[in-house]
Amino acid sequence: MRRLMVALVGIGALCTACGSSSSGGTDNPVVQSNSSPPTGGSTAGGQAPAITQTWTTFFNYQTSAADRQALLEDGASLGKAMAMGDKFAKAQHLEETVNVKHISLDDATHASVSYDILSHGTVLLPDATGTAVQINGEWLVAKQSFCGLIELGAGGKTVPGCSAAS
Fold first, then answer.
1. Which of 11, 70, 78, 136 could be stapled to 161 by a disulfide with Cβ–Cβ 3.0 to 4.6 Å?
2. What's the distance, Cα to Cα, between the start and end of the chain in Å?
3. pTM, whole model, 2 decimals?
4. Whole-angstrom distance, CA of residue 100 vs CA of residue 90
5. Mean pLDDT over residues 58-83, rounded?
6. What are the CA-CA distances from residue 136 to residues 18, 49, 61, 73 (Å)?
7. Is the pLDDT of residue 29 over 50?
8. DSSP letters for 70-104
9. CA separation for the pair 86, 44 (Å, rounded)
């Protein structure tokens, strides 16, 4: 039960903690290849590989904070929110990855993404949904999706940079 509670409290921090560097250890994380298609299919046509790569890179604990910021809509304004998640992930020894399950285009610049968040191969957040946005030809994790996750785990605390995302 405690493990479940820790997982539920930390879900909001997961997407920011993906780039936390590992502090050693011998565990091999489960990482879905960036080139793998969504496991449940896609109605996003040729856009699915780029969206999948963005999400699997962003939600990978081995990705640097700078690289994650570049994959996040308005990432420059969310550095403090990302740091909150990194701190939590390090304290909980989380090694997040994502399994993109399905992608569907909503319009030319927005896509719905169905995914699971995992740590050490265990699903912590099943069947999550989020949005990818295309800005200047690049697919990014939507600020609203990021902020929704981080606010979920913040326990009522104000999340820097996220107040205007709702």
1. 78
2. 31
3. 0.76
4. 24
5. 94
6. 24, 17, 26, 11
7. no
8. HTBTTGGGGHHHHHHHHHHHHHHT--EEEEEEEEE
9. 31
147 assigned to some structural domain: yes
Instruction: Please indicate, yes or no, if residue 159 is contained in any of the structural domains.
Output: no
CATH of the domain at 76: 3.10.450
Residue 110, domain member (yes or no): yes
Q: pLDDT digits over 116-149, tens only?
A: 999 999 999 999 999 999 999 999 999 999 999 8
Total of domains in the chain: 1
| The two three-digit tokens of residue 51, written as one number | 């969206």
Local structure of 34: helix, strand or coil: coil
> Is residue 103 pLDDT above 90, yes or no?
yes
What burial class does residue 87 get, using C-beta atoms within 10 Å of its C-beta: 0-12 exposed, 13-18 middle, 19+ buried?
middle
Is residue 112 assigned to a domain? yes
